[in-house]
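Appendix B, Record 12. Input sequence as logged:
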Amino acid sequence: MYGRPIDENKEIAITSGATAAILSSLMAFVEAGDEVIVIEPLFNLYGQGPTDLVDRRVHWLIVQFVGGTVRSVTLHPPAEAGTMPTSADSWVLDMDELRDAVGPRTKMLIINTPYSSQLANETFPRIATLGAAIAARTISIGSVGKTFNATGWRVGYAIGPENLITYVQWAHVLLSYVASGPAQEAAAVAYEEAEAQGFWNSNKQLFKRKVDSLCLFLDELGLPYVIPSGAYFIFVNISQVELPRHFDFPPTVAKKGRDWKVCYYMCRELGVSSIPGSAFFLEQNSGIGADYVRFVVCKTDEEIEFAKERLRGLKPLIRTHEAIKPDI
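Logged structural output:
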């Protein structure tokens, strides 16, 4: 890829989805007491999350299962994030904080590019080029389902040097042995045909159009948001939403932050589901995510338009009703 030869027998591990590739890599190299650095907002299978029963199971699966400890470094949103649309690139990684997170027990750093709230986990684009010194220490993980808009195929891969991939392959054997043969064959044909049929560019334009459509609607509604740099997720700032004072939340939601309450309200009253922003942060940093909910645009145009109509029901609850004009 990108002019770099890869030995398909020794430098690629085919896995049952990208999640299995992540877990296989952790199993292969992380031992009891080792530390894994993650960057928040993050794929919520990495860390501990809130302490209810379901989330404890997730935490046990991905961290305690391999005996490791998660250390996090948080991306910082710009000061104007609560009042106007901002670019995802304006969320800043403090390199001093990253250096401080590295210690004698650090075994792995998990990063995602483009950053979407997911090692280098290339679930959407093709494999990026790396300098030789970094490439020798890097496992790049991808998802066929994400790449071809077919989530659920459960075909992923890990690419890296033979001395790393060998152990990832053996760990995956213990997890699920092998990914589905017919799905692997379909994935291979898809990659062969994608270039010839112009899929990469057409798919990019498809989702850019959907993202732009929802962003224009959010401008009209008066809600700030984070313009994604390479994903079909949109982080929407809901700090100006004032929910009805006496709205009846169930106990499990009543003890949560603003984001959980807004998500519950939208689902219950408007029929639109979203994910609370704090779900993408570890518990100690969940306050950053509490001002956000996450929407996706990997839906039909008709579904997106239907959701817009329902979300107009939020307008009376937004403290400022003036349409937002992006200045990016």
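The first helix runs from residue 18 to 29.
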